[in-house]
Amino acid sequence: MARFTDDNDADAEIRALGEALAMLRRERGLSQAEAGQRLGMTSQGWGLYEAGKRSGLFRPDVQRRLTGALDATPEDLALLVRASSTPSALTQPFKPDGLEMRGRIFEGAPSVERRRLQLSSDELAPWAAAGTVLEYVPGRWPRRDQGCVIEMADGSLRARLYVRSDEVELVVRGAGALLTIEKIPRVQARAVSAVVARLDEG
Q1: For 3-17, 84-98, 115-129, 136-150, which range has the lowest pLDDT when averaged over its residues?
Q2: Quick one: pLDDT band at residue 38, thresholds 50, 70, 90?
Q3: What CA–CA distances, in Å, run from 45 to 34, 36, 77, 80, 198?
Q4: How far is it, in rounded angstroms, from Cα 55 to Cα 15?
Q5: Would you say residue 132 lies in a domain?
Q6: Left, alpha or beta for 3 (phi > 0: left; psi -120 to 50: alpha)?
Q7: Range of the domain at 54
Q8: Going by C-beta distance under 8 Å and a sequence separation of 6 or more, which residues neighbour residue 72?
Q9: Strands of 157-165's sheet, edge to edge?
Q10: Total domains, the chain
């Protein structure tokens, strides 16, 4: 069967797709095991996709399945691939095949502010242990079971796993090895921000 791309090109493309998939997963604060679990897959199975060792990653149905587990879309994956493969894309006009683009060159999206909080206890174990640094985006609302950082009315910060919320209370898990349910009155929570990465220091 004829191939339309050079083997080296195909390898580079699948590696770029795998790296973009890893970036999407880290942005959502998930480990490979957690992402794989959403699809009934092992962490090793998920890792093979991220390492570019499964050619099925080229298939649209596989991309939909993997990105869906991350609450993302194949389009999100494609945008990350494009951004990482063409670092100067923001300064170059985009020319679709056979067409010449005229007019305004659009600026890239503004960079997103990220903050960090280092855990000093094992309150969120096994999700995250003492010493783990949580990277979070102020103002980005978390999804269910995603890590979050809550800024309390007294100025203190609490790291928890988001469950749900309404106008009366914020329901989270954490504050103990069993990740017990905790209900926080909304008047006590000044802001809730989604954790997008967990970093092991040292």
Answers
A1: 84-98
A2: confident
A3: 12, 7, 18, 21, 21
A4: 10
A5: yes
A6: beta
A7: 7-85
A8: 24, 28
A9: 115-118, 132-137, 189-200, 147-152, 157-165, 169-173, 181-185
A10: 2
